[in-house]
Amino acid sequence: MSKNIYVGNLTWGATDADLRSLFSQYGEVTSARVIEDRETGRSRGFGFVEMEDNGALQAIQELNGTKFQGRDLKVNEAQPRESRPRRF
Predict the structure, then answer these.
(1) Closest C-alpha to 10, from 30, 32, 40
(2) Which positions fall inside the RRM domain (predicted)?
(3) In this structure, which CATH number among 3.40.640.10, 3.90.960.10, 3.40.50.1970, 3.30.70.330 belongs to the domain 2-77?
């Protein structure tokens, strides 16, 4: 099984490859993605990493609150996205 991990407080310059590199120390990373604004293409300051369970738990414990590219990361298990009303 794999876990989806939320990674917040990223610098604007953080890339998918940066996340993959950081989390690969703890196990096999299935995917790593920095979320970008649809209109500007600029980072929104958070991302998601998917990796196997044991490595994910260790990564969450060890990386939450640590400095990465000069900012304190917020790392925890991702929660399902809440449904929002559609806008027209």
Answers:
(1) 32
(2) 3-80
(3) 3.30.70.330
